[in-house]
Amino acid sequence: MTSINTKNDLDALKKRIQAWSASLGFQQTGISNVDLGAAEDRLHAWLAKHYHGEMAYMERHGLKRSRPDMLVPGTLRVISVRMDYFPDEQQRAKDLLDHPRKAYVSRYALGRDYHKLMRKRLQKLARLIEDDIGDFGYRVFVDSAPVLEKPLAEKSGLGWIGKHTNVINRQAGSWFFLGELYTDLPLAEDVAESSHCGSCRACIDVCPTAAIVAPYELDARRCISYLTIEMKGSIPEDLRKPIGNRVYGCDDCQLFCPWNKFAKPTAEGDFAPRHSLDDADMAALFRWDEATWLSNTEGSAIRRIGFEQWLRNLAVGLGNAETSTAVIEALQSRRDHGSALVREHVNWALQQHNVL
Q1: Is 218 annotated as a binding residue?
Q2: Could you give the CA distance from residue 328 to residue 331 in angstroms, rounded to a whole number?
Q3: What does UniProt list as catalytic (predicted)?
Protein backbone atom coordinates (compact mmCIF):
# COMPACT_ATOMS: atom_id res chain seq x y z
CA MET A 1 0.00 0.00 0.00
CA THR A 2 1.03 3.61 -0.50
CA SER A 3 3.31 5.19 2.08
CA ILE A 4 2.18 8.75 1.24
CA ASN A 5 0.61 10.25 4.35
CA THR A 6 1.34 13.98 4.61
CA LYS A 7 1.12 17.12 2.50
CA ASN A 8 4.91 17.30 2.34
CA ASP A 9 5.01 13.72 1.07
CA LEU A 10 2.42 14.54 -1.60
CA ASP A 11 4.16 17.74 -2.69
CA ALA A 12 7.46 15.90 -3.02
CA LEU A 13 5.74 13.14 -4.97
CA LYS A 14 4.18 15.67 -7.33
CA LYS A 15 7.61 17.07 -8.16
CA ARG A 16 8.92 13.56 -8.84
CA ILE A 17 5.93 12.82 -11.06
CA GLN A 18 6.59 15.94 -13.11
CA ALA A 19 10.28 15.01 -13.46
CA TRP A 20 9.48 11.43 -14.47
CA SER A 21 6.91 12.70 -16.95
CA ALA A 22 9.44 15.00 -18.59
CA SER A 23 11.94 12.13 -18.83
CA LEU A 24 9.31 10.09 -20.66
CA GLY A 25 8.93 12.73 -23.36
CA PHE A 26 5.92 14.70 -22.15
CA GLN A 27 6.37 18.45 -22.53
CA GLN A 28 4.10 19.40 -19.62
CA THR A 29 2.22 17.77 -16.75
CA GLY A 30 -0.63 19.25 -14.73
CA ILE A 31 -2.99 18.07 -12.02
CA SER A 32 -6.68 18.84 -11.56
CA ASN A 33 -9.61 17.82 -9.42
CA VAL A 34 -12.60 16.01 -10.94
CA ASP A 35 -15.22 18.78 -10.86
CA LEU A 36 -16.28 19.25 -14.49
CA GLY A 37 -19.72 20.72 -13.84
CA ALA A 38 -19.36 23.64 -16.29
CA ALA A 39 -17.97 21.37 -19.00
CA GLU A 40 -20.81 18.93 -18.43
CA ASP A 41 -23.35 21.69 -19.06
CA ARG A 42 -21.56 22.71 -22.27
CA LEU A 43 -21.45 19.09 -23.46
CA HIS A 44 -25.18 18.60 -22.93
CA ALA A 45 -25.98 21.86 -24.76
CA TRP A 46 -23.72 20.78 -27.67
CA LEU A 47 -25.38 17.38 -27.89
CA ALA A 48 -28.84 18.95 -27.77
CA LYS A 49 -27.96 20.86 -30.96
CA HIS A 50 -26.92 17.56 -32.61
CA TYR A 51 -23.53 19.02 -33.45
CA HIS A 52 -21.95 15.60 -32.86
CA GLY A 53 -23.53 14.16 -36.01
CA GLU A 54 -22.86 10.42 -36.35
CA MET A 55 -20.59 10.34 -33.29
CA ALA A 56 -23.14 8.46 -31.18
CA TYR A 57 -20.42 7.54 -28.69
CA MET A 58 -20.51 11.13 -27.43
CA GLU A 59 -23.97 10.41 -26.01
CA ARG A 60 -23.17 7.05 -24.46
CA HIS A 61 -21.98 6.30 -20.93
CA GLY A 62 -24.36 8.68 -19.19
CA LEU A 63 -22.48 11.07 -16.90
CA LYS A 64 -19.25 9.07 -16.83
CA ARG A 65 -17.67 11.32 -19.48
CA SER A 66 -17.95 14.42 -17.31
CA ARG A 67 -17.60 12.78 -13.91
CA PRO A 68 -14.25 10.97 -13.64
CA ASP A 69 -15.09 9.46 -10.27
CA MET A 70 -18.06 7.70 -11.86
CA LEU A 71 -15.95 6.28 -14.69
CA VAL A 72 -13.22 5.16 -12.30
CA PRO A 73 -14.56 4.99 -8.72
CA GLY A 74 -12.20 6.47 -6.17
CA THR A 75 -10.64 8.98 -8.57
CA LEU A 76 -9.64 12.16 -6.74
CA ARG A 77 -7.23 13.76 -9.20
CA VAL A 78 -6.39 13.64 -12.90
CA ILE A 79 -2.79 13.90 -14.04
CA SER A 80 -2.92 15.42 -17.55
CA VAL A 81 0.05 15.43 -19.91
CA ARG A 82 0.76 16.89 -23.31
CA MET A 83 3.15 15.77 -26.04
CA ASP A 84 4.11 17.95 -29.01
CA TYR A 85 3.66 16.37 -32.43
CA PHE A 86 4.11 18.95 -35.20
CA PRO A 87 6.76 17.43 -37.49
CA ASP A 88 8.18 20.45 -39.32
CA GLU A 89 8.01 24.15 -40.11
CA GLN A 90 4.41 25.40 -40.42
CA GLN A 91 4.82 27.28 -43.69
CA ARG A 92 5.40 23.98 -45.50
CA ALA A 93 2.00 22.78 -44.31
CA LYS A 94 0.32 26.04 -45.32
CA ASP A 95 1.81 25.75 -48.80
CA LEU A 96 0.04 22.42 -49.26
CA LEU A 97 -3.46 23.76 -48.54
CA ASP A 98 -5.62 23.52 -51.67
CA HIS A 99 -2.60 22.44 -53.72
CA PRO A 100 -3.65 21.57 -57.31
CA ARG A 101 -2.06 18.09 -57.17
CA LYS A 102 -0.92 17.16 -53.69
CA ALA A 103 -2.86 15.73 -50.76
CA TYR A 104 -3.13 17.35 -47.36
CA VAL A 105 -3.04 14.92 -44.44
CA SER A 106 -3.56 16.31 -40.95
CA ARG A 107 -0.16 16.70 -39.32
CA TYR A 108 -1.08 14.52 -36.35
CA ALA A 109 -1.52 11.48 -38.62
CA LEU A 110 1.71 11.67 -40.63
CA GLY A 111 3.71 9.43 -38.31
CA ARG A 112 3.06 6.65 -35.84
CA ASP A 113 -0.33 6.46 -34.15
CA TYR A 114 -0.01 8.45 -30.93
CA HIS A 115 -2.51 6.35 -28.96
CA LYS A 116 -0.21 3.38 -28.29
CA LEU A 117 2.91 5.50 -27.88
CA MET A 118 1.40 7.79 -25.26
CA ARG A 119 -0.45 5.00 -23.47
CA LYS A 120 2.79 3.08 -23.01
CA ARG A 121 4.53 6.18 -21.68
CA LEU A 122 1.71 6.87 -19.24
CA GLN A 123 1.80 3.25 -18.08
CA LYS A 124 5.53 3.67 -17.44
CA LEU A 125 4.77 6.80 -15.43
CA ALA A 126 2.25 4.87 -13.34
CA ARG A 127 4.79 2.10 -12.72
CA LEU A 128 7.39 4.65 -11.61
CA ILE A 129 4.89 6.04 -9.10
CA GLU A 130 4.04 2.51 -7.96
CA ASP A 131 7.71 1.61 -7.53
CA ASP A 132 8.12 4.74 -5.44
CA ILE A 133 5.09 4.62 -3.12
CA GLY A 134 3.57 1.16 -3.50
CA ASP A 135 0.12 0.24 -4.80
CA PHE A 136 -2.26 3.06 -5.66
CA GLY A 137 -5.43 3.37 -7.71
CA TYR A 138 -5.08 4.57 -11.28
CA ARG A 139 -6.18 4.15 -14.89
CA VAL A 140 -4.56 5.44 -18.06
CA PHE A 141 -6.45 7.13 -20.92
CA VAL A 142 -5.37 8.39 -24.34
CA ASP A 143 -8.50 9.26 -26.30
CA SER A 144 -9.71 5.76 -25.46
CA ALA A 145 -12.76 6.14 -23.20
CA PRO A 146 -15.43 8.70 -22.24
CA VAL A 147 -13.01 11.36 -20.97
CA LEU A 148 -13.35 15.14 -21.33
CA GLU A 149 -9.64 15.57 -21.95
CA LYS A 150 -9.75 19.20 -23.05
CA PRO A 151 -11.56 20.60 -19.97
CA LEU A 152 -9.26 18.48 -17.80
CA ALA A 153 -6.21 19.90 -19.58
CA GLU A 154 -7.56 23.41 -19.05
CA LYS A 155 -8.21 22.79 -15.35
CA SER A 156 -4.70 21.38 -14.92
CA GLY A 157 -3.07 24.46 -16.46
CA LEU A 158 -1.87 22.89 -19.72
CA GLY A 159 -3.69 25.52 -21.78
CA TRP A 160 -7.11 26.95 -22.53
CA ILE A 161 -9.78 25.77 -24.93
CA GLY A 162 -9.62 28.17 -27.87
CA LYS A 163 -12.41 29.43 -30.10
CA HIS A 164 -11.74 26.48 -32.43
CA THR A 165 -12.23 24.13 -29.41
CA ASN A 166 -8.62 22.91 -29.40
CA VAL A 167 -6.39 23.45 -26.38
CA ILE A 168 -3.84 26.28 -26.75
CA ASN A 169 -0.72 26.79 -24.64
CA ARG A 170 0.87 30.23 -24.45
CA GLN A 171 4.39 28.86 -24.85
CA ALA A 172 3.68 26.00 -27.25
CA GLY A 173 0.61 26.74 -29.36
CA SER A 174 -1.78 23.86 -29.98
CA TRP A 175 0.14 21.15 -31.83
CA PHE A 176 0.10 18.55 -29.07
CA PHE A 177 -1.63 15.35 -27.95
CA LEU A 178 -3.25 14.90 -24.55
CA GLY A 179 -3.29 11.96 -22.17
CA GLU A 180 -4.60 11.34 -18.66
CA LEU A 181 -3.85 9.31 -15.56
CA TYR A 182 -6.86 9.05 -13.26
CA THR A 183 -5.67 8.48 -9.71
CA ASP A 184 -6.83 8.23 -6.11
CA LEU A 185 -3.80 10.20 -4.88
CA PRO A 186 -4.87 13.56 -3.35
CA LEU A 187 -2.11 15.54 -5.09
CA ALA A 188 -2.01 19.34 -5.04
CA GLU A 189 -3.97 20.85 -7.92
CA ASP A 190 -2.45 23.20 -10.48
CA VAL A 191 -4.01 26.54 -11.38
CA ALA A 192 -6.50 26.37 -14.25
CA GLU A 193 -5.63 28.33 -17.39
CA SER A 194 -7.85 31.16 -18.61
CA SER A 195 -8.61 32.10 -22.20
CA HIS A 196 -6.19 34.33 -24.12
CA CYS A 197 -8.00 34.38 -27.46
CA GLY A 198 -9.22 37.94 -26.93
CA SER A 199 -10.97 39.41 -29.96
CA CYS A 200 -9.09 37.22 -32.44
CA ARG A 201 -11.27 35.23 -34.83
CA ALA A 202 -8.63 33.89 -37.23
CA CYS A 203 -9.76 30.28 -36.78
CA ILE A 204 -13.41 31.19 -37.35
CA ASP A 205 -12.69 33.16 -40.52
CA VAL A 206 -10.32 30.61 -42.07
CA CYS A 207 -12.43 27.46 -41.54
CA PRO A 208 -13.15 26.19 -45.09
CA THR A 209 -16.62 24.87 -44.23
CA ALA A 210 -17.68 27.45 -41.60
CA ALA A 211 -17.79 24.71 -38.97
CA ILE A 212 -16.92 27.07 -36.10
CA VAL A 213 -20.43 28.48 -35.84
CA ALA A 214 -19.61 30.75 -32.88
CA PRO A 215 -16.60 31.32 -30.65
CA TYR A 216 -15.87 28.10 -28.73
CA GLU A 217 -18.67 26.28 -30.59
CA LEU A 218 -18.00 23.70 -33.32
CA ASP A 219 -20.65 22.05 -35.48
CA ALA A 220 -18.80 18.80 -36.13
CA ARG A 221 -21.17 17.95 -38.97
CA ARG A 222 -19.45 20.64 -41.05
CA CYS A 223 -15.91 20.03 -39.82
CA ILE A 224 -13.56 18.49 -42.41
CA SER A 225 -11.96 16.28 -39.76
CA TYR A 226 -15.40 14.85 -39.02
CA LEU A 227 -16.34 14.53 -42.70
CA THR A 228 -13.14 12.72 -43.68
CA ILE A 229 -12.63 10.59 -40.55
CA GLU A 230 -15.74 10.15 -38.41
CA MET A 231 -18.42 10.20 -41.11
CA LYS A 232 -18.76 6.83 -42.79
CA GLY A 233 -21.24 7.53 -45.59
CA SER A 234 -21.60 9.98 -48.43
CA ILE A 235 -20.06 13.43 -47.90
CA PRO A 236 -22.71 16.12 -48.47
CA GLU A 237 -22.23 17.59 -51.96
CA ASP A 238 -22.29 21.20 -50.78
CA LEU A 239 -19.26 20.51 -48.57
CA ARG A 240 -17.13 18.66 -51.13
CA LYS A 241 -15.68 21.71 -52.87
CA PRO A 242 -14.67 23.44 -49.61
CA ILE A 243 -12.80 20.28 -48.54
CA GLY A 244 -10.25 20.98 -51.26
CA ASN A 245 -7.31 18.57 -51.03
CA ARG A 246 -7.76 17.70 -47.34
CA VAL A 247 -8.00 13.92 -47.61
CA TYR A 248 -7.58 13.08 -43.92
CA GLY A 249 -8.46 15.65 -41.30
CA CYS A 250 -7.92 19.40 -41.41
CA ASP A 251 -5.49 21.77 -39.68
CA ASP A 252 -6.52 25.18 -41.00
CA CYS A 253 -7.75 26.51 -37.66
CA GLN A 254 -4.40 25.65 -36.08
CA LEU A 255 -2.19 26.72 -38.99
CA PHE A 256 -3.61 30.24 -38.84
CA CYS A 257 -3.82 30.59 -35.05
CA PRO A 258 -1.42 33.37 -33.95
CA TRP A 259 -0.44 31.42 -30.84
CA ASN A 260 1.20 28.76 -32.97
CA LYS A 261 4.05 31.12 -33.74
CA PHE A 262 5.41 29.72 -30.47
CA ALA A 263 5.05 26.08 -31.53
CA LYS A 264 8.25 24.11 -32.06
CA PRO A 265 8.76 20.99 -34.19
CA THR A 266 8.58 17.79 -32.21
CA ALA A 267 11.71 15.89 -31.24
CA GLU A 268 9.72 12.64 -31.15
CA GLY A 269 11.04 10.50 -33.99
CA ASP A 270 7.90 8.35 -34.13
CA PHE A 271 5.90 11.39 -35.25
CA ALA A 272 8.09 11.97 -38.32
CA PRO A 273 6.18 11.63 -41.63
CA ARG A 274 6.01 8.17 -43.17
CA HIS A 275 5.77 7.20 -46.86
CA SER A 276 6.08 10.88 -47.87
CA LEU A 277 2.50 11.58 -46.78
CA ASP A 278 3.53 15.15 -46.04
CA ASP A 279 4.17 15.75 -49.76
CA ALA A 280 2.18 13.11 -51.66
CA ASP A 281 0.53 13.30 -55.07
CA MET A 282 -3.23 12.61 -54.82
CA ALA A 283 -3.42 10.62 -58.06
CA ALA A 284 -0.54 8.41 -56.90
CA LEU A 285 -2.21 7.79 -53.54
CA PHE A 286 -5.47 6.93 -55.32
CA ARG A 287 -3.69 4.20 -57.27
CA TRP A 288 -2.58 2.35 -54.14
CA ASP A 289 -4.28 -1.03 -53.97
CA GLU A 290 -5.63 -2.22 -50.64
CA ALA A 291 -2.55 -4.31 -49.83
CA THR A 292 -0.31 -1.29 -50.39
CA TRP A 293 -2.61 0.90 -48.32
CA LEU A 294 -2.62 -1.61 -45.46
CA SER A 295 1.16 -1.83 -45.55
CA ASN A 296 1.71 1.93 -45.73
CA THR A 297 -0.76 2.72 -42.96
CA GLU A 298 0.45 0.06 -40.53
CA GLY A 299 0.86 1.68 -37.12
CA SER A 300 -0.82 4.87 -38.40
CA ALA A 301 -3.95 6.64 -37.17
CA ILE A 302 -5.11 6.67 -40.79
CA ARG A 303 -5.78 2.93 -40.63
CA ARG A 304 -8.94 3.48 -38.59
CA ILE A 305 -10.97 4.90 -41.49
CA GLY A 306 -10.56 1.87 -43.74
CA PHE A 307 -9.57 1.67 -47.41
CA GLU A 308 -13.03 2.46 -48.80
CA GLN A 309 -13.25 5.72 -46.88
CA TRP A 310 -9.68 6.57 -47.89
CA LEU A 311 -10.67 6.24 -51.57
CA ARG A 312 -13.82 8.28 -50.97
CA ASN A 313 -11.78 11.13 -49.49
CA LEU A 314 -9.20 11.03 -52.26
CA ALA A 315 -11.93 11.05 -54.91
CA VAL A 316 -13.20 14.33 -53.45
CA GLY A 317 -9.67 15.70 -53.40
CA LEU A 318 -9.14 14.70 -57.03
CA GLY A 319 -12.44 16.31 -57.97
CA ASN A 320 -11.03 19.54 -56.57
CA ALA A 321 -7.62 19.08 -58.20
CA GLU A 322 -6.28 20.75 -61.31
CA THR A 323 -7.51 18.92 -64.39
CA SER A 324 -4.79 16.70 -65.85
CA THR A 325 -4.40 13.39 -67.64
CA ALA A 326 -3.04 11.80 -64.45
CA VAL A 327 -6.06 12.93 -62.42
CA ILE A 328 -8.62 11.81 -65.02
CA GLU A 329 -6.96 8.43 -65.53
CA ALA A 330 -6.71 7.82 -61.79
CA LEU A 331 -10.39 8.57 -61.31
CA GLN A 332 -11.46 6.49 -64.30
CA SER A 333 -9.51 3.53 -62.93
CA ARG A 334 -11.98 3.42 -60.00
CA ARG A 335 -15.14 4.22 -61.95
CA ASP A 336 -16.34 0.61 -61.67
CA HIS A 337 -15.12 0.08 -58.12
CA GLY A 338 -17.03 -2.51 -56.10
CA SER A 339 -18.07 0.08 -53.52
CA ALA A 340 -21.10 2.23 -54.35
CA LEU A 341 -19.70 4.87 -52.00
CA VAL A 342 -16.45 5.09 -53.94
CA ARG A 343 -18.25 5.08 -57.31
CA GLU A 344 -20.51 7.94 -56.22
CA HIS A 345 -17.62 10.16 -55.24
CA VAL A 346 -15.56 9.20 -58.29
CA ASN A 347 -18.43 10.12 -60.60
CA TRP A 348 -18.87 13.44 -58.79
CA ALA A 349 -15.14 14.10 -59.18
CA LEU A 350 -15.17 13.31 -62.90
CA GLN A 351 -18.09 15.71 -63.35
CA GLN A 352 -15.95 18.47 -61.82
CA HIS A 353 -13.54 17.88 -64.71
CA ASN A 354 -16.39 17.80 -67.25
CA VAL A 355 -15.92 14.08 -67.82
CA LEU A 356 -19.33 12.45 -67.97
Answers
A1: no
A2: 5
A3: 143
Which runs of E-coded beta strand occur in 114-255?
138-141, 160-161, 167-168, 176-183, 212-214, 217-218, 246-248
DSSP states of 210-224: --EEETTEE-GGG-H
Catalytic residue (choose from 98, 143, 184, 270): 143
Task: Give the pLDDT confidence of 112-162 residue by residue, as tens digits.
Answer: 999 999 999 999 999 999 999 999 999 999 998 999 999 999 999 999 999
Please check if 197 is assigned to a binding site. Answer: yes
Residue 240: CA atoms inside 13 Å, Cβ hemisphere, count?
23
pTM exceeds 0.90, yes or no: yes
For 118-132, letters b (16+ CB in 10 Å) and e give bbebbebbbebbeee
Answer yes or no: are the C-beta atoms of 222 and 57 closer than 8 Å: no
Confirm or deny that 257 is annotated as ligand binding.
yes
Please state whether beta strands 176-183 and 138-141 pair in parallel, antiparallel, or not at all (unpaired).
antiparallel
Residue 207 known to bind ligand: yes
Is there a binding annotation on residue 342?
no
- d(Cα 75, Cα 34) in Å, to the nearest integer? 8
Residue 104 β-bridge partners: 246
Output 204-210 pairs: Cβ under 8 A, ≥24 positions apart: 204/163, 204/164, 206/252, 206/253, 206/255, 206/256, 207/164, 207/252, 207/253, 208/242, 208/243, 208/244, 208/246, 208/250, 208/252, 209/239, 209/242, 209/243
- Answer for the pair 316, 346: CB distance below 8 angstroms, yes or no: no
Give the span between the Cα atoms of 242 and 209, in whole angstroms: 6
3-class secondary structure, 102? strand
* 161: helix, strand or coil: strand
**Best CA proximity match to 317, nearest among 227, 233, 192, 204:** 227
Check if 143 is active-site: yes
117 assigned ligand-binding residue: no
Distance of alpha carbon 83 from its chain centroid, rounded?
12
